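Record format v2
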Amino acid sequence: MSDLLEMKNLRIGATVYPPGEKPHDIEIVKGVSFSLEKGQVLGLIGESGAGKSTIGLASMGFGRGGVEITGGEVWINGRDILKGGMRGLRALRGAEVTYVAQSAAAAFNPARKLMEQVTEAALQHGRCTKSEAEARAVRLFDKLGLPDPETFGNRFPHQVSGGQLQRAMTAMALCPQPDLVVFDEPTTALDVTTQIDVLAAIKDAIRDTGVAALYITHDLAVVAQVSDHIMVLRHGEKVEYGTAEQIINAPQEDYTRALVTVRQIDHPEKAPAEPVLTAKNITARYSGTRYDVLKDVSIDLAPGHTLAVVGESGSGKSTLARVITGLLPPSEGQIDFAGRTLSPALAGRSREDLRELQMIYQMADVAMNPRQTVGTIIGRPLEFYFGMKGRKLRDRVAELLDKIEMADGFIDRYPAELSGGQKQRVCIARALAADPKLIICDEVTSALDPLVADGILKLLLDLQKKENVAYLFITHDLATVRAIADSIAVMYQGKVVRYGPKSEVLAPPFDDYTDLLLSSVPEMKLGWLEEVLAHRKMESAGH
Amino acid sequence: MRIPIAALIGLILTAFYFLMAIFAPLLAPYGMAEVVGGVWEPSSDAHLLGTDNIGRDLLSRMIYGGRTTIFIATAATILSFTTGSVLGFIAAVLGGWADQVLSRFVDLLMSIPTLIFALVVLSVMPVTVPVLILVMGLLDSTRVYRLARAVAVDIEVMDFVEAARLRGEGYRWIIFREILPNALSPLVAEMGLRFIFMVLFVSTLSFLGLGVQPPQADWGGIVKENADGIVYGIGAALYPAVAIATLAISVNLVADWVLNRTTSLKGGRG
């Protein structure tokens, strides 16, 4: 048999405990079959709940808490690992098959040096001696582009950056010289500018060592860069399987087509107008620190327009939102809103100021009180700002639910009974209920699946047209920016490095940072990664 | 909903003790302080548990004593929970100076052993039931305060509380509508445990003579009155001890079950 990994009709089940119902069994993976040859990379892609991580872990014979492999076969190197018992699995894991987790920061033991952890599996399985393993780790560090490969292993996990840690984890997976590596969303938690380096490092390492890999992600553009084949999953079933080229260029199924064309919303830029919000020369720092998180930031935003604030984590974009909402009074600067100057601190603002400036959060889960019904969550601003009661209140809530394209049957549900997209919609309705002039959207789509996020963006644009509300849209995702913004502020280390209408900001000539940011956004085409890297090499050679 | 067997036993026994306390005058065969026989008579048809050190019916004393003990413990628990959790929530929501002042004051109270503190206070105050409840409830509220504050601090940083602040909500809404419903399950579970401590506390005080005053019966007092009998092989003092132990265990079983149920539930916060 030439196949390294073969899954035959794999079935995985779990018991769920929905609130208010009897516990029952559900099937997470419903009979998935595929095979993977030596040295090949298979991308598993799908939205959350599609079963992609579950399949990835099943290739090591592992089911996460409460999950059980109920049927099918998993063949690795010509043996069915599900029949080998615990002893067989122990010999397999960390030796023949290794795993790279999504959050390297959470997967490393902070108390031990990187070298010990990278070589641990190889030593545990007696695959080589300590010096051999360390020499191999150093070679891998070098190959993965980590700084000072000779001494890198002497550091502790907290002494290296997130991107470096993710690469160290890849080194850990490759060190025992496995036949198969399972990558579970290895770049999802990283900034785009870091993601591209890690992606390139992973791709090189896979090619040089000749291992086979399962690459799990929800981002089709990413998986297209590293995979030979792609399998699209949905609700635990295979939707489509094909070569990367076929999936990207000629998708057969509607669902795959939707994934490929995601975020291609056409949003023409609006003509400039008198601003509703002006923030002038904002400088801010958190109390007890001596470091300015925002340095002399000035922006303005017209009614019914969208200003996208873009930047990687730590650039100060969320802090800007906190300053505008009054949660963090700035040390310098002034905010004008709807023709009046806002008090820097929340306590000094009038009820009218608060009503007209609403906020939507990244994690809809924690932005809603789990013990309140949808009706209370949306109804409270109506009651609080407009004094609505009884019949009138309920009618208005139903009307708002209609605006966010949800039936009024949701009115008595609790947040736990909603899907991720529905939760975010309820948060939008809560903001709309106050009849605001400006809504601050803090990474509102980044925790959602691409198709769901698409729906939310379309809804936001639609509502903007009807209600003439302005959005301050904070995001790290440039595809979202293209879809929704009228003007853009690019932030880097607390400063606005580029600011203006969308057409100008996204057109050359670029400053260095904007160029890096723009070129790092994965594009839905094959060979994009190589193009960008070649381009960058050329540029640095030219300098 | 299936109730595990341990919790079921706990529920039945707890219900038994509480019903007994409520309907004491109907259930007790004799009056509480009525002398009906000789000293330390063995159990007979007339006196199921025998008589006590001055010839009162022990069963009647136990039933009335349970009523006093459970009533004082319940009232003190309610007092300690209302004061403790409201102050704890206020400290968590206000933060800053208010939190510092409250927390340091509570630390100060907690640095003195509760029993000794209670003995000192009760030795200068008239020992009546309301005073007893007040002293026990306020001293115990320091423990509840710490728990409530810790739970509320966690909830206070959640986005939905921030959203309420941004909406301009007052402290009352934030404390009672946003924080309290989410803090309720750990507090309810703790309540069961604190109730038991209250039972033990009032029994200890009575045993030391600074709790419920005779001729009023309570379990700790019955142990004290009949303690001498043990020397002569008379087990009258053991009945209240058994009652205290079984009540403690059964309320604990229920509290454990509540805690388990509410923390493992998907969707609700623990």
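The mean pLDDT of chain A is 87.
Residues 192-209 of chain A form the longest helix (18 residues).
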